[in-house]
Design brief:
With 82 residues, this protein is mainly alpha-helical. It has three helices and no strands. The chain is elongated. The relative contact order is 0.15.
């Protein structure tokens, strides 16, 4: 019985699936939009703690932090995405 070797997903593939975007351009657009919104939220338009706006900003922060943590692993040669 032969087992087919499964190719690990790339960082881009994992995050495209995770965020539900179309391709690498969509991934870049999504991450850029999240960063831009988060940056505005914490520098110019600081939301009230507990507000819906703060919740969205925190969600963006979590997604960006996850992407950056995975990117760090790629740069260290430890491509283990989940």
């Amino acid at each position: 019985m032969s087992r087919a070797r499964v190719r690990p997903m790339t960082l881009a593939e994992v995050w495209i699936e995770r965020l539900g975007v179309e391709g690498i351009p969509g991934l870049g657009t999504d991450l850029e939009a999240r960063f831009t919104a988060l940056f505005a939220s914490v520098t110019t338009d600081i939301p009230e703690a507990g507000s819906a706006h703060a919740a969205v900003a925190y969600s963006d922060l979590r997604e960006l932090a996850g992407f950056l943590a995975d990117a760090r692993l790629v740069l260290l040669g430890k491509e283990n995405h989940s």
